[in-house]
Design brief:
Elements (H helix, E strand, L loop, with lengths): L1 H11 L4 E7 L7 E5 L4 H18 L4 E3 L7 H11 L3 E3 L6 H5 L9 E2 L2 H12 L12 H5 L13 E2 L9 H4 L4 H11 L5 E2 L30 E3 L5 E4 L6 H15 L2 H4 L1 E8 L2 E7 L9 E7 L1
Parallel strand pairs: 3-4, 4-5, 6-7
Antiparallel strand pairs: 1-2, 8-9, 10-11, 11-12
């Protein structure tokens, strides 16, 4: 049992822990333990524990939380060991930093926080697509070369459980949110939709939210009573945004270029941005989709 191995290591010195430099206030000043992956026993215990979950569930991929707490090489070893692609989370808006965890000797992809911030800036706030002095679409896409051949494996999103809902940032404007969703389903990368976005959820009051999470950012899709019985189910497949996402997924299935094609900028100006997705090789060579957006 790998858990027993880690517990035993704590008392016998087999598994060493280093302290990281942050603490949760509710932990009364205690810091979080960080596993020393240079220790073979610790590494084996953790890797075996993770692999067991994939052997049991047959999951297709793994998300590595707080990837910066592990070296890119160690995560790549884990990826090879469990036999599925991984993508990591580095809560950072700097492409240079995020790209260090992407590659043939690192992870297949990462959560694309730099592009996320550009999407919020340009689609929610209506900022300048073309302004490379701030985080904008053009500034981020101009650095795509840092991801090499893995650029189409970057994981794109408009909001998640750690950030305000896009709809909140957009002041309740559903059209802006749907524009942003269309964008991530057509630009390079793998789009991810956070539960509740398809239900048009967000504070939607047009006011600034204190902190990084509004009241809907970890919204439960069901309400249950004390006995665990579902008393309300909020998963509505008839919302306009749910139907839009369904159509966008069908579009991605129909056109290989939207999943695998090379992205090339066609036009960039303050409030108009256009790009091409084109298959440069393979069975669908020459297939091309032109995508244009304004804000």
């Amino acid at each position: 049992n790998s858990t027993d191995a880690v517990d035993a290591g704590r008392s016998k010195g087999v598994v060493r822990f280093n302290h990281v430099s942050f603490a949760y206030p509710e932990a009364e000043g205690k810091v979080l333990d960080d596993i020393d992956f240079d220790n073979p026993e610790a590494k084996t215990a953790v890797f075996d524990s993770i692999k067991n979950w994939f052997d049991v569930t047959g999951a297709d991929a793994a998300r590595v939380d707080a990837a910066k707490c592990m070296s890119p090489q160690t995560i790549h070893e884990l990826q090879e060991y469990i036999g599925v692609p991984t993508f990591g989370e580095n809560f950072d808006m700097c492409v240079d930093f995020v790209a260090d965890w992407v590659g043939d000797d690192a992870e297949d992809g990462m959560l694309d926080f730099p592009l996320f911030q550009a999407i919020v800036n340009d689609f929610a706030y209506g900022q300048n697509f073309d302004n490379t002095d701030e985080i904008s679409l053009k500034k981020i896409f101009d650095q795509d070369g840092l991801y090499g051949d893995h650029v189409n494996q970057m994981v794109t999103f408009i909001d998640n459980h750690d950030r305000n809902r896009f709809l909140t940032e957009a002041g309740g404007n559903v059209a802006k949110m749907q524009n942003a969703l269309t964008f991530i389903h057509t630009c390079r990368g793998i789009p991810v939709v956070f539960q509740g976005t398809e239900q048009n959820r967000g504070n939607a009051n047009g006011q600034a939210i204190s902190g990084i999470a509004d009241t809907y950012n970890r919204w439960c899709m069901q309400t249950k009573d004390a006995n665990g019985n579902v008393t309300a189910d909020y998963f509505n497949t008839n919302t306009d945004t749910y139907q839009l996402i369904a159509s966008l997924n069908e579009l991605r299935q129909e056109y290989t270029a939207l999943r695998e094609g090379t992205q090339r900028e066609v036009w960039s100006s303050p409030h108009f941005y256009a790009f091409s997705r084109r298959m440069d090789a393979g069975e669908k060579v020459g297939e091309e989709v032109i995508c244009a957006f304004n804000n």
